[in-house]
Amino acid sequence: MHTVVEVAKMIDHSLLKPQLTDVDIEAGCALAAHYRVVSVCVRPCDVRFAVQLLNGTEVLVGTVAGFPHGDATTPVKAAETRLAIEQGAAEIDMVLNIGRLRSGDLAYVEEDIRAVVTAAAGVPVKVILENAHLTDEEKVAGCQAAERAGAAFVKTSTGFAGGGATMDDLRLMRASVSAAVQVKAAGGVRTLDVLLAMADLGVTRFGTTATATILDDLDRRLRHAPLP
After folding, report:
1. Catalytic residue check, 93
2. Beta bridge pairs of residue 65
3. What angle do CA 159, 169, 81 make, to 5 degrees?
4. Which of 72, 135, 175, 226 has its Cα between 20 and 30 A from that of 24?
5. The pTM is what?
6. Which of 77, 126, 139, 184 is catalytic?
7. What are the residue boundaries of the structural domains of the chain, listed by start?
8. Of the residues 46, 93, 112, 169, which is catalytic?
């Protein structure tokens, strides 16, 4: 069984809902600091605020580019990325161009991702495919384009489209990229059992709003586990 610390270091605590207030962001960052998750993923407008709130903790601040639909132009995605990093973002979750992927324009998709990776200048980029809109063949093509473009992760979903992370998609994504690229699950990761089952498939990062539920459940199980 994973320890609470190990699982916490797999979690990006998600603070992306458009209706979140400053008070909500403060509470979410406090929760992330309490549980020592690897990062919070905040809206671009909240990066500077979250960096201030989490100063002195180990929690990274990540944000999004081209979110949630992926249809911003490439220069806009790159500019979002540069500004976010200037403001203290340590990770970027970008949405690839879903329509171009579905059209078979893989050159566009790859160059769009590469522009963000270049703008990130070494900061890890996670590429969101939004699998609910894609065939299996398109998922494979999107993952492979992300790897060619230098992405650090491929990611299932924004959490704002129908569906979310599925076991079948995660198996497919893990098989579609080399060991140099990690896989992030997001959308529907709400219980410890789901997270652990996905981790067994090779998923190393999870976007969730259910951080407290997941980690409290693990803590209870470990405290009540029989001694060997």
Report:
1. yes
2. 94
3. 45
4. 72
5. 0.96
6. 184
7. 4-224
8. 93
